[in-house]
């Protein structure tokens, strides 16, 4: 950093970065907290609510998001159309079916501060259901954030050698029938 | 006939009402609407503004402290620690810097702040060793607290 001139250093401090997060097999709440922290600019020591120091965040693979527990069936998203009898309640699974971007979007919207800056911060959030990104966004990206949750390996991902090398407690006899 | 009571009806009030009114209106010049021109409306608005200013002097201290704390928290997370751990270990190492100074260091002196974060992390590790060990190990370098007479 000492090789940069002072003006270049200051320019870099106040620049707006573009972060990318891969949401494959991640809980949407944890993704949303990371997004909201960076959209507000709270990850910077120069943070101030009025100084517009938020960054852009790109979330990809939101179609492959993973709720823990039974939230796909139990978590309910409610809304009202404004007309009488227009109270709608949809489960997370139904909402994800209809629009794969909505769960992350609603989660981040609820985590941002409830003031007039929220809409501008939501405009700086870019959500994509799959891997494809437009070229101009891809050209702007500066940093990839690590995933919050470690993805457990499926049995099909282990090689046969690793499965054989794993210690066994007992070997079943030949005529043993698994349920 | 001479009207002798007419001079008694002319009352001369104070000579400097204009300047007293201007002294008040100068505090209202940046208000919206007629409050910035008309004295009766301005009096109420200016009194309210002064009351808000008085109450805000206490709030300013609170708001500045929360701002310092959020800035320090952001800077410590850049170095892989959390704010409570940093402050706790700095006080245990008898570093008596207040939050204002630490937040200014985090902004303008990043390497000094990094050294503070490393100091706090070393003291934290010593604390863990002292808690998990059995007391046979000597206390660490940073855990020594000097009592000055």
TrEMBL record, chain A:
The keyword Ribosomal protein applies. Keywords: Mitochondrion, Ribonucleoprotein, Ribosomal protein. The keyword Transferase does not apply. One of its GO terms (molecular function) is structural constituent of ribosome. It is found in: Mitochondrion. InterPro entries: Ribosomal_uL13 (IPR005822), Ribosomal_uL13_bac-type (IPR005823), Ribosomal_uL13_sf (IPR036899). SUPFAM superfamilies: Ribosomal protein L13. Belongs to the universal ribosomal protein uL13 family. This is Large ribosomal subunit protein uL13m.
From TrEMBL, chain B:
Keywords: Ribonucleoprotein, Ribosomal protein. GO terms for biological process: translation. One of its GO terms (cellular component) is ribonucleoprotein complex. It comes from the Eukaryota. GO terms for molecular function: rRNA binding; structural constituent of ribosome. NCBIfam families: rplT_bact. Belongs to the bacterial ribosomal protein bL20 family. HAMAP family: Ribosomal_bL20. PANTHER family: 39S RIBOSOMAL PROTEIN L20. This is Large ribosomal subunit protein bL20m. It comes from Amphiprion ocellaris (Clown anemonefish).
């Amino acid at each position: 950093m000492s090789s940069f001139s002072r003006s270049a250093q200051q320019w870099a401090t106040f620049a707006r970065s573009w972060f990318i997060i891969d949401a494959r097999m991640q809980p949407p709440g944890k993704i949303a907290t990371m997004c909201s922290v960076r959209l507000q600019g709270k990850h910077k020591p120069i943070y101030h609510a009025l100084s517009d120091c938020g960054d852009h965040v790109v979330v990809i693979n939101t179609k492959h998001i993973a709720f823990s527990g039974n939230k796909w069936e139990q978590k309910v998203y409610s809304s009202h159309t404004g007309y009488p009898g227009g109270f709608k309640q949809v489960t997370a699974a139904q909402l994800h079916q209809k629009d794969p971007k909505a769960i992350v979007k609603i989660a981040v919207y609820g985590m941002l501060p409830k003031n007039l800056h929220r809409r501008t911060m939501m405009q700086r959030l870019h959500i994509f259901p799959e891997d494809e990104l437009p070229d101009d966004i891809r050209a702007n990206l500066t940093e990839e954030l690590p995933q919050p949750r470690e993805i457990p390996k499926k049995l099909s991902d282990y090689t046969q050698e690793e499965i054989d090398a794993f210690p066994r407690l007992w070997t079943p006899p030949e005529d043993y029938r698994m349920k | 006939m001479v009207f002798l009571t007419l001079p008694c009806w002319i009352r001369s009030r104070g000579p400097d009402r204009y300047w007293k009114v201007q002294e008040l209106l100068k505090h209202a010049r940046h208000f919206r609407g007629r409050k910035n021109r008309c004295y009766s409306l301005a009096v109420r608005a200016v009194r309210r503004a002064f009351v808000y200013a008085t109450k805000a002097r206490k709030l300013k201290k609170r708001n500045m402290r929360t701002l310092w704390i959020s800035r320090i928290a952001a800077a410590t997370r850049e170095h892989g620690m959390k704010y409570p751990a940093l402050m706790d270990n700095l006080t245990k190492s008898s570093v008596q810097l207040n939050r204002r100074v630490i937040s200014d260091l985090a902004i303008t002196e990043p390497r000094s702040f990094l050294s503070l974060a490393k100091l706090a992390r070393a003291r934290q590790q010593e604390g863990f060793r002292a808690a998990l060990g059995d007391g046979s190990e000597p206390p660490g370098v940073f855990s020594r607290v000097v009592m000055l007479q």
